[in-house]
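Re: that chain you flagged

S.,

Sorry for the slow reply, it's been a week of failed gels. I finally had a moment to sit down with the sequence you sent. For the record, here it is as I used it:
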Amino acid sequence: MDKLLSKDLLGIRNLSVEEIKLIFDTADKFKEVLNRPIKKVPSLRHLTIANVFFENSTRTKLSFELAQKRLSADIINFSSSVSSVKKGESLLDTINNILVMKVDMIVMRHPNPGAPHFVAKNIDASVVNAGDGTHEHPTQALLDSYTIREKLGKIKNKKIAIIGDIAHSRVAISNIYALQKLGAKVMLCGPSTLIPKYISSMGVQIENNIENALKWCDVANVLRIQLERQKNKFFPSLREYSLYYGINKKLLEKINKDIVIMHPGPINRGVELNSDVADSNNSIILDQVENGVAIRMAVMYLLSLNKV
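Prediction finished late last night. Pasting the structure tokens below so you have them in one place:
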């Protein structure tokens, strides 16, 4: 296999294992480029890419934009807060007005689940889902799995605990799909109020005790408490959450096990992770950020091959 089967990357669910491995192999080559003195290749100099973000983003948007610049693409940045969306323009009208300016690819984040899928069905340009509501965040899951493979040598049969606000996380869903396709065992840990009932049907283990989860896992992927998505109170206070589910050096010393620590960012320091863990030798959080550029370069390059 030398290219992706679809013109779009909308989620992990429909990606094959072969496609994921192709993305990883391509990212390996781009990571070599990123470590050169001149960190740029002309792979996408013939394309114009629009970053269309209907929701706030710092890390993901910067990572995509840097990946596009490393590939020599022309870039348009769109923010809904200063656009005609505020005047009532429809989603598809907005996208079509961008495309008529000869844009070849859309990188899209939207607060509503399924919005990128709707757009992809109605346009010829490629669409990359940069996060749709609480549904999926495919490139984050790809870079997470890629970073685990880089750290541990393989993913198959490794035990990965995803800890925290599962109910409001698009990262968790995409990670479950990616890790299971690659042969990992997945456990979800958090308060029962933050773990959706349906999610046990995805073949994951459920654990409400943080110590049990950490004793079980090889890797702890710790998620942020997403207060901006929570319309109701799911736990008494951040202090109480930190007391029962926060990971600190003292807890890890008690468990006395070497565990790889991950976080998609941004970190609520002192809530889900203490600085003595986030900045420790066990943490590969900054590796995730670095690998995110290579993975996003790989995805956009592979999708561009469908244009040739």
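What I noticed first: The radius of gyration is 19 Å.

Talk soon,
D.
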